[in-house]
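Sorry to interrupt, but I need a hand with the structure work. Go ahead and set the record down below:
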Amino acid sequence: MLKISDNVISSPLRQTCRLHPTLFCIVLRVIFSLSTTTSWASTEVCQKIEFNRTWNAFVRSGVLYHNAMCGGTHDEIVTAGSTCPVGCRARNLENLLAQRSKQDADHILSSWFEVLTSNDALESDRKQDKEARARLLARVLKDPKLNAAQRKTIRSLLYGKLASTYASRVYFKAMGEKGAHKNPETVLERVRDFAGAHQNTSVIELVRSEAPRRWTSSDFDCEMQYWLGRTYRKKRKYNPAEENLRAVVERCAEPWKKKAGFHRARVTSYRRKTNYSILHNFVKTYPNDSLSDDVLIWTAKSYLDEGRTKDALKIFKRVVDEYPQGDQSNYARFQFAFRNATIGQRSLALETLAQGLQLDAHHVKVLEHDQWRYWHGRLLAFPRLDTFEINALDEEAFRGLCELQNLAQERSFSFYGTLAENLLAQVAKSQASILQTCPDAANSAGGFAKSFWEKRRERTQKGASNALKEQSKTLEDLGLHRLAQETKEALKSQIDIQGVQQTAHAQQQRGDLGRAHRTMRNAGFALLPGSPAAERWRSSGHANPWALAYPLAYQKELHSAARAIDLDPLLIQSIAREESAFNPVVTSWAGALGLCQLMPATAREEAKRAKIQYDTDEDLKEPSLNAQLGANHLARRMRQLKHPFLATAAYNAGPGNVKKWRTSAFPKTLDAWVESIPVSQTRGYVKKVMGSWSVYRKMYGDPDSSFPMLLP
């Protein structure tokens, strides 16, 4: 067991973290996972590495990424050197300066020019870190001792890398400064920063102001015009998007030619009349590229929109055959099966689904596996998609009913498990006695769950190797060579999924349920196999991942808003989980804001109806206001459409689209209607929100609650 000396436990290190000693030890074990013979008692380490109270170990794309952040006194901040992200040190410095006299604070700040203007390799991209750094830089600019070169450096940073921060925008607006500090690279940095923060209007205004009178084929012009076209696409202004992206494709070299071509294909797939030559040419030009299967899927969707089902089926089959390892392969496989079922090719649909169920779990997502199980049983027992009339109770139908029952029992905490549960309860009541004779399941869910956790462990360990290199390099830079090597060797074998859960659990213990959820989600645990009550969680002593993946974050704001208008609180809880991952200050690529991701126009409409006043769109990042307006909006859709699935679809795509989609070939059967929603984003959104709603109700509400399988 890792031993930590008393002088470390009682040092400012623990006080800064504000953690209980036992939990603090756990945190250190998660980060360093030192071997049983290693004792981390070196005062040298304690002097050089301090952990801020905002200790941050988070997972990004499955990588357990450790940031050793500075804290404590000014001397400790300075001596920590490159081990700490500049943004974190900036926040700590702000706290330090607030406790000093103005003269002392100015003296300390003047010594920080090199740090605040450095391009730190470990720079944090967290919004609050960037804001702190921008505020301090704007403050440093007031120092009369700065020379012209230093002032230009700071202005370039505020204009470029920190462009999207509020502090930067306030500074430039107040000073009215335009261009002396700008150069092509800082202009591009500013464009990228605005685009990354989804500040679409700012991207367009900036590119227009900096655009040359005539576009050329230079890298600068190509990238600028690419961002302009891509941003117009995000704003759904497809004519200018097509114009700019086409120009890049025709004039520029790689990589801008391919990037623009890809987004141009996306634009034409959105339009009422698809230009298939754009789609076909991209695949022809880049036949082996990982983006080509995406373009083929857009082609198939356009065919479906035009009623060309057979042409779409050919494309889906091509994706399965030519891109078996691509990220669209499983989606294409299901669409090939489902669309064959819609035209009466039930046998081919069942065969395709059965083949999917034989795939290794390393290549299948949880939701995909459930989807294939549900529809295989559904088509065996209920062969027509537009009705729930059971097939003649032959051996095939009996097998289908049993498959649905097994799915409902094994995966009751999932979207498709809940569908199966509701379907059997509402439609197959007369077969209740027959269902009691079903053979025991072959524990396919158990086997899949085991493979799921193995896959996630492999992914996390693979990602951890990158974090190990950074952590080891940090220790090497400090001259702690032995500790660097021991840390690297120990972490190689010990960082895994338990480290992710421990990180999330520590965040949960600090009361930050939203961050705990995002840690799990970013590591690939938004959807889970098994159930919250599984024996392995009760007896293992590890944090139950279900409580971390499905927390009651912002419960006070969300539930009080829902109860005030007679809305199920757990439904709006599910909306917030899927919309923002419980991040109250997030902005989507389309401009939706806050906890429940409200578009400003929608928020203003709901505020007017409820007679709620707020000043600016930024106010929507306040959780209680956002929750109130989001709940009001969802409740209004429920009153209009009379079904939670329809209301959820309308929350994402608008009631007009939902009413239009109700005229599809499946106006009554809930399951087939969901699968036939033509917009993939809305279709996936409904499944995720309704799946979360099912889990939340069974964990925290009424486990027997149901929803009608026939639409009103």
